[in-house]
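Q: I'm building a small set of examples for a reading group on sequence design. Run inverse folding on the following structure and report the sequence directly after it, with nothing in between.
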């Protein structure tokens, strides 16, 4: 007879909400093992009792046959004396103890559920809340751990006998599917006019949304993590009406397509881009738009942010339409996405013609993620639904529990403990009071979930950031300031598992430097605990301070003053024509005397200046508009570049701009400029001689520039590291802050 053993297994990772307990149950029963599986606040605990061979087979299945969405971060196994279990059970979850199990993101509707959704013979035909253990909402409905129905916003929906039978059937795909529901027992939808009058319910409400969009209307639709504003993306009048109501005059809208076939009629998509579009996270993917199509959606740009339906509600609506729809966040520009019914009636009613509501509460708001492909690999632009809150595992353990509050633009915050950092969903720009409210709400929420109290709060060095002021006002934790560009590089290092010294190239719009000026074109020698500034772009004055960020012509004017002095006032250039009579003299005086004209070494502002001098755009209506328009002008056939100089650690691009002024063709100017920047990075890397190079900062979201830099550095023998999991922009600096704050003492 085989020796009977009892193995006790503790698993931590993405093991709740992915059908892991049903998988363990079926595997143990198949192998004839006895024992139990249970969720607790740290993961999953399993005890299996049986022969050594059968237990070995169980371990093999755990590692090789686990559910596709499951991921095991750590595994602890002990062997104890057999205790004579009679059967194998799924036990009631344990709710006490520390919380460090990984929460699962919201997951797009799986193929099986989509097939049932579209099958007239299925009892869930066109039911907008269909789900199973392989798909559906997770992060946005979980109220507390462990992940069980009573701990979600589904707790008030009592399952009908049919759903209850599925839930308890080990052979069923919905075995222990916590949000399980159907039209009999689950959430319901209804359609209202802007005055809160109900006009339809259930399937009639969904048909009403389709009819309204088809006739040029705008509808607010409650989804997974908040509301979308929907309209016909091919109807220019509807799109312009939405722009006017949302106060979003030029910034691109995301577009949702029925399926990949429809999408490919409007945009091009590589194999890597198609894989992203169809992935369980269903992000918005930035694609090359086909000429002449969706121009009102992507004003002045060659790209379109495209995505496919990720919830059954979206699928049902899109199936009824022959056109793609604008699917933009349900909010006013730069405010947090609306998530609650009452909030929608108050804040969205003026923006739309009708509102589609449902009665499944959204516990936490979570906007759509945005991704682009650079050099054949995904690069995160905005990390949110579908990705959050999967933790980032570090190659070391943090010495202290840390809350990192992020930056001012594209804010995310992070909590770090032990060997992991958990980034929040996208919070947004922190100018609006509502954004600060969302920030505080989300910190309290994530801290509550993980029973987390920080030993240290890490914040940006900039004293004017609202997040910095918030951090300094907290009591009971040490405060640590982290220089903005150092945080960028630490973020890239952490994502790539690096702990030793690297050359960090941190290029972005602006970040507060230790010398009191604004940095943004930095070459830093970094390790986990410190950095040294080796090279930087020549600082230029930003005339008008924050105004220069919104008006590329002001940075162009600063460059003209550097090159020609007061004579620049007499030049006949498009960059100057928009200023009022007499205004240029005032700006000259401000530049000359440094009045509200801080010095900045920003690489991002140089893209602004180029856009102005080439008359691409003079005044921006959204962040990074000029840089995106310049990026669109890149022509790989142009190989030459402009002149620059490097002296005493300062990189001077004024010679390049002198040559730009003689350029007559925008495409050539933009391409030569990007070729020049790439060459500068490669040359400086050679001067420094550090074989590992990390690229971070929003400038490296520029696809052609990033590709030129990566290819050029690798050709010279450098090992290049970039962002994939967190954004290169300021949405990723909370990771770097967390690493610094958690390690410093």
């Amino acid at each position: 007879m085989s020796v009977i053993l009892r193995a006790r297994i503790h698993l931590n990772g993405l093991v709740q909400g992915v059908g892991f307990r049903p998988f363990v149950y079926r595997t143990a029963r198949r192998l004839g093992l006895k024992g139990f599986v249970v969720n607790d606040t740290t993961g999953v605990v399993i005890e299996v009792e049986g022969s050594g061979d059968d237990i070995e087979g169980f371990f093999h299945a755990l590692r090789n046959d686990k559910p596709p969405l499951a991921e095991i971060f750590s595994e602890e196994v002990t062997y104890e004396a057999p205790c004579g279990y009679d059967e194998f059970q799924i036990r009631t979850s344990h709710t006490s103890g520390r919380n460090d199990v990984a929460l699962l993101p919201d997951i797009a509707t799986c193929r099986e559920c989509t097939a049932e959704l579209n099958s007239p013979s299925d009892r869930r035909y066109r039911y907008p809340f269909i789900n199973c253990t392989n798909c559906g909402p997770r992060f946005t409905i979980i109220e507390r751990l462990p992940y069980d129905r009573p701990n979600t916003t589904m707790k008030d929906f009592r399952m009908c006998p049919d759903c209850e039978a599925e839930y308890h059937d080990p052979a069923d795909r919905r075995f222990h599917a916590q949000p399980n529901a159907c039209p009999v027992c689950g959430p319901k939808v209804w359609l209202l006019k802007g005055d809160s009058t109900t006009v339809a319910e259930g399937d009639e409400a969904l048909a009403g949304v389709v009819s309204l969009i088809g006739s040029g209307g705008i509808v607010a639709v409650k989804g997974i993590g908040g509301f979308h504003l929907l309209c016909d993306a091919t109807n220019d009048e509807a799109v312009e009406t939405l722009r006017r109501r949302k106060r979003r005059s030029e910034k691109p809208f995301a577009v949702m397509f029925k399926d990949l076939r429809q999408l490919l009629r409007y945009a091009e998509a590589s194999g890597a881009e198609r894989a992203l579009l169809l992935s369980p996270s269903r992000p918005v993917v930035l694609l090359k738009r086909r000429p002449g199509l969706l121009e009102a959606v992507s004003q002045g740009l060659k790209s379109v942010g495209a995505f496919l339906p990720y919830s059954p509600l979206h699928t049902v609506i899109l199936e009824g339409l022959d056109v793609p729809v604008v699917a933009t966040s349900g909010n006013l520009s730069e405010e947090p996405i609306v998530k609650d019914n009452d909030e929608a009636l108050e804040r969205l009613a003026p923006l739309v013609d009708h509102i589609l509501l449902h009665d499944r509460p959204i516990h936490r708001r979570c906007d759509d993620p945005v991704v682009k492909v650079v050099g054949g690999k995904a690069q995160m632009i905005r990390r949110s639904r579908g990705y959050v809150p999967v933790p980032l595992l570090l190659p070391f353990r943090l010495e202290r529990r840390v809350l990192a509050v992020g930056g001012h633009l594209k804010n995310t915050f992070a909590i770090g403990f032990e060997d992991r950092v958990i980034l929040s969903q996208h919070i947004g720009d922190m100018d609006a009071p509502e954004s600060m409210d969302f920030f505080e709400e989300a910190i309290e929420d994530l801290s509550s979930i993980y029973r987390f109290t920080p030993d240290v709060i890490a914040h940006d060095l900039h004293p004017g950031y609202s997040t910095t002021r918030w951090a300094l006002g907290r009591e009971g934790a040490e405060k640590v300031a982290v220089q903005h560009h150092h945080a960028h590089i630490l973020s890239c290092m952490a994502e790539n598992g690096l702990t030793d010294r690297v050359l960090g190239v941190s290029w972005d719009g602006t970040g507060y430097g230790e010398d009191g000026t604004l940095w943004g074109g930095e070459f830093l020698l970094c390790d986990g605990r410190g950095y040294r500034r080796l090279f930087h772009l020549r600082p230029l004055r930003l005339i008008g301070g924050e105004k220069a960020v919104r008006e590329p012509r002001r940075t162009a004017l600063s460059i003209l003053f550097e090159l020609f002095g007061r004579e620049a006032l007499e030049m006949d250039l498009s960059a100057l024509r928009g200023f009022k009579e007499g205004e240029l003299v005032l700006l000259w005086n401000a530049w000359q005397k440094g009045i509200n004209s801080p010095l900045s070494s920003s690489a991002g502002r140089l893209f602004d200046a180029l856009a102005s001098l080439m008359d691409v755009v003079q005044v921006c209506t959204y962040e990074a508009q000029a840089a995106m328009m310049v990026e669109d002008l890149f022509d790989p056939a142009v190989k030459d570049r402009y002149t620059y100089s490097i002296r005493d650690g300062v990189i001077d691009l004024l010679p390049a701009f002198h040559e730009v002024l003689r350029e007559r063709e925008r495409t050539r100017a933009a391409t030569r400029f990007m070729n020049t920047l790439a060459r500068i990075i490669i040359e400086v890397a050679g001067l420094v001689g550090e074989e590992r190079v990390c690229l971070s900062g929003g400038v490296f979201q520029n696809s052609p520039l990033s590709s030129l830099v990566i290819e050029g550095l690798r050709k010279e023998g450098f090992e290049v590291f970039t962002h994939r999991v967190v954004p290169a922009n300021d949405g990723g600096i909370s990771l770097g802050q967390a690493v610094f704050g958690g390690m410093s003492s």
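The mean pLDDT is 95.
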